[in-house]
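ping. complex inputs:
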Amino acid sequence: MSSDTIEVRFHPAGVTAKAAAGINLSEAAHLAEVTISTLCGGKGMCGKCQVLVRSGAVSEVTAAEKKLLTEAQLSSGVRLACQTRALGDVEVEVTEQQQVVVRKDLSEAMFREFELSPRVKRLELSLAPPALEDQRSDLLRLWEGADLQHCDCRALLSVLQKLPAVLRDGQFQVVVTMMDDLLVEVETLAEAKAALGAAVDIGTTTIVAYLMNLTTGELEATSSTLNPQTVHGADIISRIEYGRDEPGGLATLQAEVVGAINSLISSALADIGASIEQLYEITVVGNTAMHHLLLGLDPQYIAQAPYIPVASQPLTLYASDLGINTHAGGQVFALPIVAGFVGADSVGVMTAADICKRGPTLALDIGTNGEVMVWSGERLLCASTAAGPAFEGAKISQGMYAAPGAISKVDLADGDLHIGTIDDEPARGICGSALFDITAMLLVTGALGVSGRLAESDAGLPASIAARMSGEGNGRKVLLADAEQAHNGQSVYLTQRDIREIQLAKGAVRAGVEILLEEAGISVDDLEGVLLAGAFGNHIRPESAVRMGILPEVPVEKIKGVGNAAGVGGVMALCSEQERALACELAAVAEHIELASSANFQNKFMEAMLFA
Amino acid sequence: MSSDTIEVRFHPAGVTAKAAAGINLSEAAHLAEVTISTLCGGKGMCGKCQVLVRSGAVSEVTAAEKKLLTEAQLSSGVRLACQTRALGDVEVEVTEQQQVVVRKDLSEAMFREFELSPRVKRLELSLAPPALEDQRSDLLRLWEGADLQHCDCRALLSVLQKLPAVLRDGQFQVVVTMMDDLLVEVETLAEAKAALGAAVDIGTTTIVAYLMNLTTGELEATSSTLNPQTVHGADIISRIEYGRDEPGGLATLQAEVVGAINSLISSALADIGASIEQLYEITVVGNTAMHHLLLGLDPQYIAQAPYIPVASQPLTLYASDLGINTHAGGQVFALPIVAGFVGADSVGVMTAADICKRGPTLALDIGTNGEVMVWSGERLLCASTAAGPAFEGAKISQGMYAAPGAISKVDLADGDLHIGTIDDEPARGICGSALFDITAMLLVTGALGVSGRLAESDAGLPASIAARMSGEGNGRKVLLADAEQAHNGQSVYLTQRDIREIQLAKGAVRAGVEILLEEAGISVDDLEGVLLAGAFGNHIRPESAVRMGILPEVPVEKIKGVGNAAGVGGVMALCSEQERALACELAAVAEHIELASSANFQNKFMEAMLFA
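pong. complex structure:
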């Protein structure tokens, strides 16, 4: 390779383009088969091809960029791909809202049945027409026809305004839509459309929307996207700091997540040919920081002792107040949070699991943070660990999301590693679930020591494993996919530094597990089950999780992957008032354990980092 | 008078300017001492001096008017006074929103005590600051501090957004404002301002706003204005037709009443130096049509059999949805209506009177329509009569509102009529209360016959009365104030035609009274009391009301003027949840009697028109 050849690496796809220095980032993306939107064909006019330059030398900001990007964007490294040339090796984050293939299959995660009884209720009414002997007002006629006499009468003004026309057009045969005691829609029987709702899971990294038919309870469509706030940092703390320190930062963060939700919903609706006026309610789960940023609530006090959120209770708000597009009367229900960083996502997991109906249970939700929940049979304890986004592929040198080509599992057979990729495509990088496998396999073969150091010599290693090791000290690494197995001939490695990241993350989670079990007064043997939730919870192999030590020693048959249980909790709260009530109850009874203030957290953490 | 001298009569002030043909209407108004607003000094630029030309020849529409007025306005006769010249005798209505002096003294009408317990509640909280041992969220801390644990937690998003800053600025000593279970405001103890509310009485002719301090229950300010919808017709039916037939008519009517309410409120707030952010709730009373037009509800079905309103139940709406300026979370409570034209104004009267706690009672609310209510001791019956606006001075040739100079009472002494005017100013016209007196006095002296015809000869009349009579047939009239007693030397008369209007109005009301008493199964002698409500209810002399026959023969000591009881009902509903509940209960138990479909209405009406 000549010295002029440089590498442009694109995140989150985890692919690299090799080209001559000076290549335009749009062209590099094209070479690497990364899609970057454009409307103007690369003329610097539409502003659609925004990317975040993470590191490396790039060309100066052009006049077109100054026009289309804010100063805040430019200073945070946002550029237009079509206007920017790579002058050396560059790391680029594709930040604009694209559909990301995320392996989140709701149906497999929805692991218990529940009754369909959404808050959004539809009633088909056949009303007696008015007469001199029956001069009830249109609304009273409808109200009594729907047997709602005992409710306070509340109606959207826009519905009242069209009520006389709709009743008479429909010859008093109508379909009404109620939310609690609020009349939100009236349609003629002939023109009534299905009522829809969406459950949105706002992850620090990924946002997923599940579009549900509220009459049938069926999942109509799923859409997901990168959380656009990622440009301000992959972890929660850097978002909170951005909101606190940047002028208008909070508003920017809110606008970003609202924009992402709007585009997810509009794409899901388009998938099934439905209109925004059919969407009546949205439930939201997310960690405390994501919850606060969606609502425009200042999260700064969560990040400093004594770690106080603005609001923890379940909140019902008008979608329009948040700028979220729905039916004119659409509402947003934000599931409650527990305390500190233990947010509505954990409440979603506990709800989906109906955790207090089980025997003693440990549940882990592994996303950008790691949430730990322990039900002792008497007490429900929760904690949030600062695991960071390693398990989502961030901070891992060739980490990537669970997109096609991601190494998602690793087996050990015949003394060697055997990789499996998503869709069996040539390997492009490593996604979360494989990190558990690789760590476990390296430990089993002796290539990785208790302290987390890769073996410096080949002595005692299986030959095939030894052949995969190269480099020295902190530069030591393990080959996972060679040029033949990999996309574009770019071999995939796990490095010593990557292992340090895994160690920190698993240490944080495991320390949380230990402290909660201790506080709950139960031992590992008391556990009846262990639930592994998270985007790739289904894909983690229990034996790997135990071997690499994120879980204590439990029989693998007790461990169950439950997928995106947080999202399932949001779906349940959307589709069932009972489940919504359960979520509120669980949030109220859950006890929050503040790990940072736990006397022996540091000890436990140090211990837990070891691969003992 | 030369043939070039013409008369320009201004309503509602009831004054006339005499001038040479061709006089500009602004100048004529100046001559007649009528104030017409202008910002541009009569240059046709500001569009402020809008008037409605009711009849008579005027100059062509100018280019300035085409620019400043809509086609709809022009075709309904709206002109700019500064641009329009009177070519002959002209009748002009001054339509722009001016403060009208209306004799509505709330304190004298507030004729029973009630408990101050407004829906808008303020709580002074002294909260424990957060600690590691007490990690409750800001909202939960506040919620539990306010002892609201058992409520569903609802809060305005804007309040949540400022909550952490206010709590910490105020060192956790704060004042919160709640409406039901909704948190609508949080202020530091040091900066908390008084909570205000307004009760608005939307009359067909006049709109009055009472600004109340919700903490002390005191009336802080009163303001009133002409209902700007008057340009589309003085009576209810012409407004309904305008809304039905004119493109955008409903929106225009709504915008007019909303604009009037906004300016009343802003003027009342300015009177006491308060800000709009202190105004949390507005209660509204008005007849069914005014109620519907405020809410933008189509009233057309009230005006045709079977006379169905859109909504009759009590309605709670966000002020912002109506375009009414309040605190960001301000709400509007529209009192319920009974049915047909029996609206929230009647409910207000019945609430103010607590009518079902009384013995058998007849209540009349005399405004543009006449509402009749009968409480038999067992049943509560209501009807609306098409009395029309005669008693408010409309359709009476020299009729006017109760402004200074209006003849408001007439006595008979020494065989002659003696007039009294408001503020003892020279007479300008006749207002409602005096019509009852004059009719009664003319009947007593024999100048007016049973059939409603003025005596054609002087035979048998007291000499002084005879001297007041002039003209023949339908041109016959009675002098009330001669040139010396009258403003600008313009004598005031009551004409034969005026008496026909009075006859129709009193006939409609009295027929309603008779039908309701009959339906209730009680006789006049059973009545324990008669309540006369309405803008001038206090000013009607009971003996005159009985003598002219709008009331049946009841001992005058049973008759009580109760002023603007509808407005008082609105104030009570604003200041007391119990009274609000009473209003809702009364509206629900009241039975509506549809006079138009009553078999013997025509007979009763014909009989009741006679001055028997």
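The two ends of chain A are 43 Å apart (CA to CA).
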